[in-house]
Amino acid sequence: MLKPNRLTGAATALAVLCLLVPTGAAPARAAPPQDKAATTIDPAALAALARMGDFIAGIKRFELVAETTVETVLRGGHQVEIGGVVHYWASRPDRLRIDAVTDTLHRQFFFDGKTFTAVVPAEGFFARAAARPTIRETLALAAQDLDIEVPLADLFDWGTPDAPIKHFERGFYVGPALVGGLRTDHYAFIGKDFDFEVWIQQGDTPLPLKLSIVDRRVEGSPRFSARLIWSNAPFSDDVFTFSPGKDVAEIAFARSASVKPAAGNPAAPAAKGDK
């Protein structure tokens, strides 16, 4: 299910592989409707999402940089923008690293196949917990049990039964657009509580190059947007391993009683896990 709060919350913390050159014919595209507030989902728009999801799910090892912007609604109703850059390294099914730097914070997350580790470099501490077998399951653990929302976690739902396609009520093709100099097809989808837009690269590499979500559950309907820069350049598995320095202290996550510490992780003093 598409979770705007997961995306926007993670962007306050905060991506997978560009440099792939499109070849071949572009996918069939529906003509933009005269009324953008169409009451149905255009089948061609739905097919484009499914094709994108299958392509993402088929990438076994990737690197991604997301340039993000989150609108934050202040108490007086005014909106301010928080910018960030999130760097992802992933190797399916069980390796992930995320470095998230925004205008307000810096966080790192490591999943090495056995342990999930969250690091706050500026404050010099980290916490870890036993992970689950796959990236998707471990991100679900982080969100549900550790109260940690990582940015763009929904990317790992595309191409699976949990893809958010079935939750859209309306959808249509907006038109062609350039994103980072690459030709894309721009689609818009509307759900009960949010608006979702995606710019999908044309050709044989239908990667999402830009995403935008408007969360209408929040006063002021703030927008989250991300430009995605994908790379298939090789990288070492060392990137998934966290090695704490001598000045970095370990604390415990605040978590439910059902979550057990990672093997070799001594019981730390009660401390609130960082989001």
Please provide a written account of the structure.
- The chain is mainly β and 275 residues long.
- The chain contains three helices and twelve strands; from the N terminus they run ααββββββαββββββ.
- The protein has helices spanning 4-11, 43-57, 135-145, and strands at residues 61-73, 79-91, 95-102, 106-111, 115-120, 125-130, 170-179, 182-190, 194-201, 208-215, 223-231, 249-250.
- Strands 7-8-9-10-11-1-2-3-4-5-6-12 form a twelve-stranded mixed β-sheet, with helices on one face.
- The protein is globular.
- Residues 4-36 and 256-275 have low confidence and may be disordered.
Taken in chain order, the helices and strands follow as HHEEEEEEHEEEEEE
- Percent range of helical residues: 10-25%
Cα gyration radius (Å) = 19 Å
* Number of helical stretches of at least 4 residues: 3
Return the average pLDDT rounded to an integer.
82
Strand order of the largest sheet: 7-8-9-10-11-1-2-3-4-5-6-12
- Report the β-strand fraction as a percent range: 35-45%
How widely separated are the two ends? 21 Å
Largest β sheet strand count, sense and barrel closure:
12 strands, mixed
Task: Indicate the structural class.
Answer: mainly beta
Please state the overall shape, judged from the principal axes of the Cα atoms: globular
Annotation, overall tally of beta strands: 12
Low-confidence stretches: 4-36, 256-275
